[in-house]
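Q: Two folds, back to back.
A: First:
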Amino acid sequence: MKNLTTYLFVMLMAMFWVFRIIVAFCYNMGIDFICIPTDLTFEIVLLFLTFVSMILVVKRSILGGIIYLIGNGLYFGTSIFNSITGTINANVNYIDMMFALIGILLPILVLFDLLLDKNRKEHPVDKKTDWFYKNKDFDREYDERADRNQYKF
């Protein structure tokens, strides 16, 4: 993780993950909270998938972004669809719809960040060390007088 955007997206993923844990806990305990989960069982599975995908995103794996997008797309996509069809009947919870939009937008941004930064992972450039290791002027040339530390006693 060398990018500032990756740090920020992982922090946003972690904050949204903790928020979803609080939502699931409050719903399970019967406490009124800002929003309620659509399906508690799928929410718990999604929380574990999100944790695994956060680890993979930190390791710069595209698979982590894809898992995160598919999981959140399945869960929050149905919630958004139900909210949009609920606007026709005038019974929609806008707070749930807002958090569902965040749940869809965040994985898309994470996946775009991983896709745009994939080239840097394959060809990393580190200005602190490349001047030494990729410069032929600093290579040591041995001649016949060089001491190769092969002492025999």
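A: Second:
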Amino acid sequence: MIVRMAVPMILAEIVNVLYSIVDRMYIGHIADVGKLALTGLGITAPIITTVAAFASLCGTGGGPLCSIARGRKDTEEAETIMGNAFTMLILLGLLLTAFTQVFMKQILHLFGASDQTFPYARDYAQIYMCGTLFSMVSFGMNFFINAQGFAKTGMMTITIGALVNIVLDPIFIFALRLGIAGAAIATVLAQFVSALWVILFLVGKRTTLKLSFRSMRLRGRIVLGILEIGASGFVMKGTTGLVQILYNIQLKRYGGDLFLGSMTIVNSIREVLIMTFHGINSGSQPALGFNFGAKKYDRVKEGIRFSTRFACLYAVIVWAMSMAFSRQIAAVFTNDSEMIALCTKTIRIFFSCFVFKAFQLTGQNVYIALGKGKLAVFFSMLRKIIVVTPLVFLLPLIPALGAYGVFWADAVADVVCSSICYLFMYFAIYKTLLSKEPGGNNP
């Protein structure tokens, strides 16, 4: 079941990452200003991550609860969870749009914009945030399509939007000569198409659970449940945004705009490399949650084992590729020789311990899928707040590292936090599930 669900989701993640990657590829090659424009786009990354964090709050919070309710054959409860999540997405989207538009200048300077890069960051962010509602609905409600077992439909949500973005990008950026603003317009239009697709499916005839006005009326018990479980997804993405801000601040201090641009490319590569992890997780969450709700613990264990093995194999392959082809990968995003030379080194540092990330993301996924949101929140906080944040400030103080210390911070955290996260999951959850079965001493 996990394979059937995961393959479409992996493909969906591959296409989804094209939203931002294609923007960066085109922007980085704009004549004369490509390097500055690419850096400006990177400065907006925490804003984009914040939008995704709030969408994840509702999606990763409601999706597992919806799967568990379906496992208990409680359709009405599952529909109410989905409807409440939709209302929450709309309200949060409106608040985010208003806040960022009012305080855009202060936000971008806080995130590391210089006088040279601010105009590019502003032009992209102001337009992008006009599509916040579309982005949140398409991303957040897609969890409920997948939770019902419609993985191919969920894949189409992302595929349709990404294809629209790919087609429109060169038209708006180059043909209409709108530059970085054109990239933002193309992205907003693509997100609108994706959101429309999701809503039409969830109110249509094919879906198992119907999105209706009755189910959208907020209920305190359900909202609190979504917030509790979704807090893990929110913290994971929200703290990613915080870390991105810290990266920008430290890189601006120790390396300047060139290093900021390098981090934009490194983050783009990271998004590509972890997309399969997210596909595996999105595909396995409904299966793990459903079987856990149905008390079929042997299938839950089997799903955990499969996800771990697949993630580890994938991590080894992509680590080797990132080490061997770092220069060629950097050249995809820029034709600036100075930037390519720097990225060749920073890519190898940042991904030097990438293999360990398989254990972090697999462990986090198990916590979310089984409704253990507090544990997922804890291990997200452990990695990004307790470990990465101090390292981002301490490592650049070492004379031999300087700005490169910012890139080493993530690698060190991969080793330390991933090991702790997975070992706790194995002994506290996997072994506990074993004990619930007859003959529970099986490996």
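Q: And?
A: The radius of gyration is 21 Å.
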